[in-house]
Each structure stands twice: as structure tokens, then as C-alpha cells.
Amino acid sequence: MANISKRLSSNVEGNFFVDSTCIDCDTCRQLAPATFVEDGDYSTVFQQPKTPKEEFAAFQALIACPVGSIGTVKKNPTMLSKAQTSFPLSIEDGVYYVGFNSEKSFGAHSYFIQHPGGNWLVDSPRYLKQLVQAFEEFGGIRYIFLSHRDDVAEAARYAKVFNAIRIIHQADAAAMPDAEKIIKGEKAVQVGMEYRCIPVPGHTPGSMALLFKNRFLFSGDHLWWDRDLQHLGTPQNLVWNNAQLERYTRKLLEHSFEWVLPGHGERIHLPCAEMKSALEQLIQRRWSAHSVDPFFGVQDKSD
Fold it and tell me: Do β-strands 143-145 and 120-122 pair in parallel, antiparallel, or remain unpaired?
């Protein structure tokens, strides 16, 4: 839990605060943008919640924080309990944001898909009995899709409980060597009627995206929405192979989707035509002489 003695001086006065253990993963800023903002290497409280809705969102951010860096001066067990039981959060059409982000994946988001043919967990949250119970109430987990080696977190524990099939690309399989299904090569692999595992090497050699219903693209750390600049972004730093990153970002134009649900960065919903246009603009902008991305930093194309 957050330690008030480590409270960052950048926090405005009031009940909520962020302490110096913050890893700047962006989780709180997505859940409660009216309260939290980035300030250098940390998130901080730039405005205390003004409405019950904003206060509840701030408590959700407190719960989801992977390192427990958010605290309150005054305790509110009732609100805290309500925020805790609000996860997983419904996004649309049986797709949920799980919450309880894991420090082991640097606070990456994980998602849950409820489906009559078997439920999917996309990347892994912290392992908690509350989530095990929630997944049981949803009908269990049949598949665990791992977008890349950085975000496996507690996948093995969830797989053991639910006897789930873990899916990972061969190039990143060292992170989950006993995975039940290994994707090989560079071609998309169809799983059932509505799921497609799409290799997108670049950030890591085994990065993959999962396309569901030709609507939802679970993009790992390959693609996200930048809330400040209001456009799609892709890594410029922490890149295994920039040429591959470019190639497989371009190949995403072959697929139709209206949601981008990333491991890091903001999720976004746009009509398919607008999403394709946003992707085309990203490609043009990203692979010019050089570009700046506020999430992953600066990298010259010549690198």
C-alpha cells in the first residue's frame, strides 16, 4: 500500500496521493484521467476528484495500480470494496478489461473474452482469489493468449487452475516454455471461427496480436492510442527489430478492426474505415526521417 511519508510533492493537497514507488505505467491515468497525470517519471494527482464518479474512478485506479503507489489520507472501506468488485470492467460485446495489473509485466493491461465456445484471457493480471472466482463465475478460462514475453506474469498459475491452453509465439516461448500451443512462423493462425493470432514481431521477436470477430485487436505492446496527441502509436524505443516492426505494422492494414486494446497505452474505438486511416497515418508519420513518441521515447529511423 502507498506510504504517505513517501508522498510525491507534486500531488495537489487532498485525500488521494501517489508515492515515490510509482513506476509510471499509465494505469491510473487511463482509469481516472480527471485525477491523475504524468509528471516526469511518475504519475501524480493534479486534481482531487470533484464528483462521485471521479472519486470512484480514482479508487479503481488505486485498486488496479500494480505496485500499490496510490493511497488516501482518509480511509473509505465501502468505496474501496465497491471499486475492487467492479473488476473486470465491461468494454463491449463480452470483452472486459481485467484490472489488477501486474508489476511483473510493468503494469500491462490484461483482458477477458466471454464466449460460448470458451473464454479467453489475454495476457495476465496479478494472481488473486477474487479474479479466480470472477473467472469461475464467467465460466472459466479455455485459452490464455500471451502477446509477448514481457506480459506473461501469472499466466502459468491461471492455466493450472483452469486447465487452460496457453498460446505464445515460438520466438518468445522461453518466457512460457511449457505452453500448450506454440505459434510458429510469420503467418496469421486462425483459432476457431472468430479468433486470429497475428504475428507482429518488432517490439520482441515473438510479439503477436489477437483479432477477435474482426472487431477487437488485442495488440500487446505493438500498437496503442496516444491520448495526448490523439493518434495511434507504436514503439520507437525498446524495439528488437525496427524493420520488422514497420513491416508488420503495415501488414495490419490487411485486417479489419475497430478496437485497439493494448498492453500499454490507451485503448481506442473507431469505425473500421477511420481505424484504417489512423493506421495509415501512423505508418506515414512513424517511418519518416525521425519521430517522437511520448510513451516509448525518441528514436531516429537510421537506428
Answer: parallel
- Could you give the angle at which helices 52-64 and 77-85 cross, rounded to 10 degrees? 70
Cα–Cα distance for residue pair 224/296, rounded to 1 Å: 11
pLDDT digits (tens, 9 = 90+) for 189-219: 999 999 999 999 999 999 999 999 999 999 9
Q: Check residue 93 and give its pLDDT.
A: 96
Element (H, E) at 157: helix 155-162
The upper half-sphere exposure of residue 266, i.e. CA atoms within 13 Å in the direction of its Cβ, equals 19
- Cα–Cα separations (whole angstroms), residue 86 to 97, 121, 134, 140, 270: 11, 18, 10, 18, 25
Domain co-membership, 62 together with 99: no
If asked whether residues 242 and 153 sit together in one domain, one would say yes
Q: What kind and span of H or E run contains 172? A: none
- Rounded CA-CA distance 32/15 in Å is 15
Residues 158, 54 share a domain: no
**Does residue 133 share a domain with residue 47?**
no
What is residue 292's predicted lDDT score, i.e. its pLDDT? Answer: 46
Q: Is the dihedral of CA 209, 175, 193, 101 positive or negative?
A: negative
Express as a percent the part of the chain with pLDDT over 70.
95
For residue 285, which amino acid is it? Answer: R
- Do 259 and 212 reside in the same domain of the chain? yes
The reported pTM is 0.92
Taking only the tens place, the pLDDT of each residue in 15-68 is 999 999 999 999 999 999 999 999 999 999 999 999 999 999 999 999 999 999
Question: How many domains does the structure of the chain reveal?
Answer: 2
Q: Which residues form the domain of 228?
A: 87-300
Question: Which residue type sits at 143?
Answer: Y
